[in-house]
Design brief:
Helices cover about 30% and strands about 15% of the residues. By secondary structure, the protein is α/β, with parallel strands linked by helices.
């Protein structure tokens, strides 16, 4: 896979992970709070901030009965109608440009997830640098085709998707003009548990679809995201809020500013630690070789005396022969007078009688 640009930043295994702060509906319908989220994400070191582009009307029908309401005691949104939930969570379209402009002032990229063709047309008018397809839209091939036809890079979340569904999505995107694609391993539960995240899928997905792969992480904390870097994740997306205690539709599984900062720092550390396959001391380790054990004369000895377990020891530092020669030296005679604390070298060992 070739590296490519997401906006102005290179993405690929040779570069630090690309960190996306997902605002979602955590602005709580306040533009000022949205600006605060942008400021905090930039201060924490996020490379991009994502919003979502839809209206309640483009998502569902204004009904509350039957399947148009969530009936799941385990859900964060139990007993909420889909329409009311989307109405609360949506980002007003006239906020998009001010939010993106705020991102630019911080040197951070702003982009969005469109949920229908009208949203794509609107986002194109704002000249966003790349697009995200949500997990729930991965089977909406007309939407994927519409986004791919812009020719801009695409990020596609893969929660719930089967291999055949992903194959359809990837083929559609590539056929419609998408040259630069990132698939995000994702578990579409909110929050997700580490046990249900299966990040070993990341390298398999990379090989299967021959594209860059990352993680859309709905687990609590940053541990899963950091671990994903070791498996080849080049993009990591996490929901972001100013304070979980202040509430919001996605706040319960969102990172707070200090946690987002930790995510940026720790994923880059994880990436730096990968290096290459290497054995033996690194350049910086060579100075530490002296602190290995080695063979030393432990008592004053006269030439001709025999090495025993009492006068020969494997101790630190490491300037003598390696300890593996201990048994070979035992019973041999010392070739010269030596003082206690002398590092044993071969010229001090007499092999002939």
């Amino acid at each position: 896979m070739k590296e490519f640009l997401l906006g102005d930043r290179k993405v690929g295994l040779a570069h630090p992970p690309f960190i996306i702060a997902e605002m979602s509906g955590n602005h709580n319908q306040s533009l000022d709070r949205a600006f605060e989220l942008v400021d905090a994400a930039a201060k924490a070191g996020a490379h991009a901030l994502k919003i979502q582009t839809y209206t309640a009307e483009t998502m569902t029908l204004n009904l509350k009965e039957n399947e148009f309401s969530i009936r799941d005691p385990k859900s964060l949104w139990n007993n909420r109608s889909l329409f009311d939930l989307y109405q609360e969570a949506h980002t007003p379209w006239d906020w998009h440009k001010p939010i993106f402009d705020r991102c630019k002032r911080h040197g951070m990229m702003g982009f969005s997830t469109p949920f229908d063709a009208t949203a794509v047309d609107f986002l194109e008018s704002l000249q966003i640098p790349f697009y995200k397809i949500a997990s729930f839209e991965v089977t909406d091939l007309p939407l994927i085709q519409k986004v791919a036809s812009t020719g801009k890079p695409m990020i596609i979340s893969t929660g719930m998707a089967s291999v055949s569904e992903l194959e359809d999505a990837v083929k559609t995107a590539r056929k419609a003009g998408c040259k630069d694609l990132v698939l995000l391993k994702c578990t579409s539960t909110y929050p997700a548990t580490p046990e249900n995240t299966n990040i070993l899928t990341i390298p398999h997905m990379r090989d299967l679809f021959q594209c860059e792969v990352g993680l859309s992480d709905h687990t609590m904390g940053v541990g899963v995201s950091v671990a994903s870097v070791a498996l080849g994740a080049v993009v990591i997306e996490k929901h972001f809020t100013l304070s979980r205690a202040e509430g919001g539709v996605d706040s319960a599984f969102s990172l707070e500013p200090e946690e987002l900062k930790s995510l940026v720092v720790e994923t880059e550390r994880a990436w730096k630690s990968l290096g290459a396959v290497h054995y033996g001391p690194t350049e910086k380790e060579k100075a530490s070789l002296q602190f290995r054990r080695s063979l030393y004369v432990a008592e004053d000895m006269k030439a001709g005396e025999v090495f025993t377990k009492k006068n020969l020891r494997a101790i630190r530092p490491g300037f003598g022969l390696p300890p593996k020669f201990f048994d070979e030296v035992l019973g041999k005679k010392v070739s010269a007078d030596v003082k206690k604390g002398t590092a044993l070298k071969w010229d001090l060992v007499r092999f002939s009688q």
